[in-house]
Amino acid sequence: MDTTTEARERTEPARLRAVLVLATSTGGIGAHVRSLAAGLVGRGVAVTVCGPASTEEHFDFAGTGARFRVVEIGSGPRPTDRAALRELRAACAPAHVVHAHGLRAGLAAGNALGRHRVRRRPLVLTLHNAVLVGGAKGALTRVLEGRAVRAADVVLGASTDLVDRARQLGARDARLGPVSAPPLPPAERDRAAVRAEFDAGDRPLLVAVGRLAPQKDYPVLLDAARQWSDERPAPLLVIAGDGPLRESLQDRIDAESLPVRLLGHRADVADLLGAADLAVLPSRWEARALVAQEALRTGVALVATQVGGIPELVGDAAVLVPAGRPDDLAAAVRDLLADPTRRAELVEAGRAQAVTWPDERETIAQVLSIYEELGPV
Predict the structure, then answer these.
(1) Summary mean pLDDT of the chain
(2) What contacts 338, CB < 8 A, 6 or more positions away?
(3) What is the pLDDT of residues 229-262, one digit of tens each?
(4) Cα dihedral angle (107, 59, 297, 236), rounded to 10 degrees?
(5) Alpha-helical runs (H) found in 11-134
(6) In sequence order, what are the residues at sequence separation of 6 or more whose Cβ sits closer than 8 angstroms to the Cβ of residue 156?
(7) Domain extents in the chain
(8) HSE of 372 in the Cβ direction (CA atoms, 13 Å)?
(9) Whether 18 contacts 67, CB under 8 Å
(10) pLDDT digits (tens, 9 = 90+) for 319-356
(11) Distance in angstroms (rounded) separating the CA atoms of residues 173 and 370
């Protein structure tokens, strides 16, 4: 954004101006910010999205009608942080409200706004993830988490446990802010065509979707896959997503001849779920996992871990198992594959449960009401 544009925005008080901030993302946070940007623009808000160039390439925020400004906020400290802070400060200058998504974005936004100044822009922080790392890094991250939470005027937690955590850390105002999954585009291929891609034959097809990162706990899912690999026919597990664990996961799949395929990033999640016999979510923690919402809406029975916000999200419409327990995960998958009646019951319950969730329209309305409550400065 040039200085002329910034000057013009400062002279347009009648139109609410919001800056949405995110760090590196290829998954749920980016999808939520894009949904939020589109909805706010549709309601007449002037939206600027600030984040790494890679996020714009992945999510096309500009395609929503928002402005996009490159601010290289990474997943950890980097030498370019000072330059990013200058960019973010300039982007936030004409804003009525700044809304950061995730810990790194919250820290950057708090620093950019200069919380010590009397006249400051209101800051909303949405917490999407829990701090899972341990040791010295975990201790430092929790200190920074407290700093980000206390800098915000309003903290939105994507699940109840995140709201409770924010209050424990001293948030002045913490509320539940459910993150709705944007509707999947219609499937372009039928079940037979997708199964043919994987040469699945008459094998049960299991689908997992998510970044190949420690939080998703895919090593436990591979442990479970090893247990069901002696079934006849052995279920085939396909995992859509990319990330830092891809090489190590692939090495293990090859070494153990596991019935698992890593697909990398896929734009056809609707096709994959439409062909699945089961969806599987083995995470150590989740708030409102997008794939859980997508599976229940699509009509796929779900096996997931009983962590974070998953129980409150799915209710009785999925089979939940303890995290980190491959035996329980493998048994749940086996039992459901052997019981088509139970799978059909879960499909029906899942669709009924999905109707109870806030949709994109309601999510955007809640966020906009908070912006208006904080008021232009």
Answers:
(1) 91
(2) none
(3) 888 899 999 999 999 999 999 999 999 999 999 9
(4) -100
(5) 28-42, 53-59, 81-92, 103-113
(6) 124, 125, 126, 127, 174, 175, 176, 177, 367, 370
(7) 3-180+359-374, 191-355
(8) 12
(9) no
(10) 999 999 999 999 999 999 999 999 999 999 999 999 99
(11) 11
Fold of 191-355: Rossmann fold (3.40.50)
d(CA 17, CA 144): 28
Task: Tally the residues of the chain.
Answer: 377
pTM: 0.86
Distance, in Å, from the CA atom of 269 to the CA atom of 255, rounded to the nearest integer, reads: 28
The reply to whether domains 3-180+359-374 and 191-355 share a CATH topology is yes
> What end-to-end distance do the CA atoms of the chain give, in Å?
21
AA identity, residue 223: D
| CA separation for the pair 50, 171 (Å, rounded) | 24
Neighbours of 219 (CB within 10 A): 16
The fold for domain 3-180+359-374 equals Rossmann fold (3.40.50)
- The 123-127 sheet, strands edge to edge: 67-70, 46-51, 17-22, 97-101, 123-127, 154-157, 174-176
pLDDT in tens, 150-199: 999 999 999 999 999 999 999 999 999 978 888 889 999 999 999 999 99
What the block records as the tokens of 369 is: 């009401």
Name the DSSP class of 181. Answer: P
Burial grade of 341 (CB within 10 A; 0-12, 13-18, 19 or more)? exposed
Share in percent of the chain as helix, strand, coil (round to 5)? 45, 15, 35
